[in-house]
Amino acid sequence: MPTEKFQFPGSDGQMLAASLDLPDGTPTAYALLAHCFTCGKDVLAAKRIAEGLAKHGIATLRFDFTGIGASEGEFANTTFSSNIADLVLAADHLRNTQRAPAILIGHSLGGAAILAAASQIPEARCIATIAAPSDPAHVTHLFKDHIPAIREQGELEVSLAGRPFRIKREFLDDIAEHRLTDTVAKLHKPLLIFHSPTDDHVGIDNATRIFVAAKHPKSFISLTGADHLLTQKRDAVYVADMIAAWAMRYLDVPAAATAVVADPPAGFVTVGETRASKLQNVIAAGRHRILADEPVEVGGHDTGPGPYDFLLGALGACTSMTMRLYAERKSIPLDRVTVTLKHGRIYAKDCETCETQEGMISRIERTITMDGALDAEQRRKLMEIADKCPVHRTLTSEIDIVTKATDP
User: CB of 214 within 8 A of CB of 185?
Assistant: First the structure.
């Protein structure tokens, strides 16, 4: 998966270093990711989340705040407000060069900053926070013993995560002015909150306060066993997978993805990759468009039914239609037909009516519910008719599938 590296001007004019992680095909959507306090865009959690989202077709912009990593400027001159302003400018850059971010993601203090910036990014459709504090001032516990000296001297060098950073009085004053829960209550955007119940940096009670303040739709996912920085790869990958699956509910993906295949000739069905994600395809039948995909746990994006779902759907629809036509023709009082199907594999020797007696074979279990004032004979006849639907006959007869490649 490609990564584009570039710079864009921050709120104080300094150039900020950024990375845009792209999927192999056309992005389904763009996300903006804010890293944790003093971490930088290349912290493992940020990189792994961006890589994970790319596998789901989502491009992610991550960047170093002023004075962090490869960005210009002095960290001592930054405030929580300047971080918010930098996030808005990052969104502006995406809007001007690619597409505005539809997904906003923030880790730790970056989560608080992304919540505060969301109202200034109108295209954002949904927001996800990871181990975010409910009060930005929570970050000051990292250097609480130095706060009196910072206020007295105006500026002091402190050690954070083993690295020296200069903190100014202005930072303390600015961060104390932000009331995040009030901001969250006015978001009016879908919110997904990740938090570990054993987070020893930002307690789980912070997630509770954010969740209570937020309006629906809101969701919470417990990162059981994860540490604050998501240092275990499986935790970051899990977060990426969950964000991708959750965000699809709020993104206009189907309308864009289904436009990639032209109307096929009469009697033909065309299936083509959308390239919006690894497995997503669009099925074109006449003027109709339907997305096909696989569940997240097997590498898909869960934007549509899987191939076997369509196979079962075809048999179920054909069964219902055939029974309906017969009931209408014979004036049978059939009110409604419901067909439930399941595909599985069994040992051939366990099938009494099958010619094959070795290895595994497919089995489709079909359950038919008939509503209406039907007598026993009418029910028996309708069940007999169900086995005569054209798709049933096709599936149980010999099929010749001819495959050929088109000329290059």
Answer: yes
Q: How much is the average pLDDT of 312-330?
A: 96
Where on the phi/psi map is residue 357: left (φ > 0), alpha (ψ -120 to 50), or beta?
alpha
pTM of the entire predicted model: 0.66
Q: At which residue do the structure tokens 């037909």 appear?
A: 337
Q: Within a 13 Å sphere around the CA of 227, how many CA atoms are in the beta-carbon half?
A: 7
CA-based nearest residue to 58, from 278, 359, 283, 326: 278
Confidence label for 234 from pLDDT (cuts 50, 70 and 90) = very high
Helix (H) or strand (E) segment spanning residue 370: strand 360-371
Say if residue 260's pLDDT is above 70: no
Instruction: Look at 26-30, 196-200, 340-344 and tell me which has the smallest mean pLDDT.
Output: 26-30
Beta bridge partners of 337: 370
CA distances from 343 to 1, 13, 291, 308, 397 (A): 35, 60, 20, 7, 18
Measured CA distances, 54 to 6, 123, 241 (Å): 18, 20, 10
Q: H helices of 285-367, where?
A: 307-329
Peptide bond into 217 cis (omega under 30): yes
Cα(158)–Cα(179) distance, rounded to whole angstroms?
25
Position 268, amino acid: F
pLDDT at 239: 96
Task: Say if strands 29-34 and 58-63 run parallel, antiparallel, or are unpaired.
Answer: parallel
HSE-up (13 A, CA, CB side) for residue 57: 29
Q: Taking CA 214 as the corner, what is the angle to CA 88 and CA 174, rounded to the nearest 5 degrees?
A: 45
Residues 97, 102, 107: CA angle, nearest 5 degrees? 105
Radius of gyration of the chain (CA): 28
Structural domains in the chain, sorted by start: 3-251 (3.40.50.1820), 254-294 (no CATH), 307-395 (3.30.300.20)
Strands (E), 238-287: 269-273, 281-285
**Which range (114-118, 244-248, 353-357, 392-396) has the least confidence?**
353-357
357-381 tens-digit pLDDT? 777 778 899 999 999 999 999 999 9
Q: Residues 266, 275: contact at Cβ < 8 Å?
A: no
pLDDT in tens, 261-281: 778 888 899 998 887 677 888
